[in-house]
Amino acid sequence: MERILVIGANGQIGNELVVALALQHGADNVIAADLGPRNPFGAAHYEAIDVLDRRLVARIIDTYGITQVYQLAALLSVTGEQDPLKAWSLNMDGLLNILEIARERTAAGRPLRVFWPSSIAAFGPGTPQDNTPQQTVMDPTTIYGISKLAGERLCAYYFSKYGVDVRSIRYPGIISFRSPPGGGTTDYAIAIFHAALRDEPYQCYLLADTTLPMIYMPDAIRATIALMDAPAERIVIRAAYNVAGLSFNPAQLAVAIGQQRPGFEISYAPDARQAIADTWPHSLDDAAARSDWDWQPRIDLAALVTDMLANVVVVPREVGQVA
Prior knowledge:
Elements: E1 4-7, H1 12-25, E2 30-34, E3 45-48, H2 54-64, E4 68-71, H3 77-82, H4 84-107, E5 113-119, H5 143-162, E6 166-171, E7 173-175, H6 188-197, E8 202-204, E9 212-216, H7 217-229, E10 241-242, E11 246-248, H8 250-260, E12 266-268, H9 272-277, H10 287-293, H11 301-311, H12 317-320
Parallel strand pairs: 1-2, 1-4, 2-3, 4-5, 5-6, 6-10, 7-9, 8-12
Antiparallel strand pairs: 9-11
Helix pairs in contact: 1-7, 4-5, 6-8, 8-11
């Protein structure tokens, strides 16, 4: 029986991952954890945890008999640029704390399986942008991307040196109707739906032809759980796997929305986020994930737009930061 701890459970991925894991393993076997007091739907247990407090995290792991940890706590690309030192500390020290706890338990014969999310932000201007290979140049330009590249190498190191069963995905931009847009460069693809459902035009902070790899949340959750459920011998890459869903640009997304919301309008006023997006891939080669653990996306752009328009709960402009 698996006992699972999700750190960063109040975040965009964490909320929905907790629900999926609770359905799979039973609510009593999933422990949600974050800094805030909220208990995400689906978990029977909630713990207020700062991932930077290694002793507290270790105590929670021992108390519940945890066998899997999903370490999702992080500052994203845009918010990370506003406070680089805080982003580095949270993103790197949080991961190191979990890896060290897993190392100790692996050595003691109580192995701990670890999931940690990487990102396309780990790529950079020297990376081939079309069909970006699994193994390629990685020269990130943001503190978030730098921390993700360093984290990938740490994951590979802890596996090769200590045998820690750590697994990771390089997430594309993740789109979800349950979370308002936050601190990510790809969050225009959420904010745009809030504008459309308010019958307002949307001013996009990226240029019309800025094509980026994206993934709809149900596919992202499926990929995450499939990777963690795969037999260890099939996990060949211990840094992070490329995982692709679909690729599109703001103009293509606006057209798809307009087909279902006639009259929807978009304009473009690129800001500092454009410079970040310009260093990221247009599309990903995820052949390794497909081969090693049978990854296969299910959701295309039309299905994504239909589902988002049917389910987004519109937030006020100042909350969603859609301007």
